[in-house]
Structure prediction request, 91 residues.
Amino acid sequence: MSELKPTKLIEAYGLLDYSLALQTAFREGYVVDASTNENCPTNYGGFFCATLVLSEESVPEVQKDKTLDDIVATKTVVDKPETRGRKAKSS
Prediction:
């Protein structure tokens, strides 16, 4: 008999709530198991549900998102803006 893996049930009545719950579960190390009908993600009208199983592999560390200050600090400043179109006629 196979060893039972820890599972997590995700249920939500909106796509956004369902997606956010899935994202949190993925970060915790759970994965979608489509090998059985009981665990397959399903949708009944506006109701979403899935049973996720804990992955046997180690979960990599999630990098933190860059903040606006980090992006501004690493952005290079352009001295002269790029001009578009033809050059003006000189008389």
Q: What stands out?
A: The first helix runs from residue 15 to 27. Residues 1-56 form one domain.
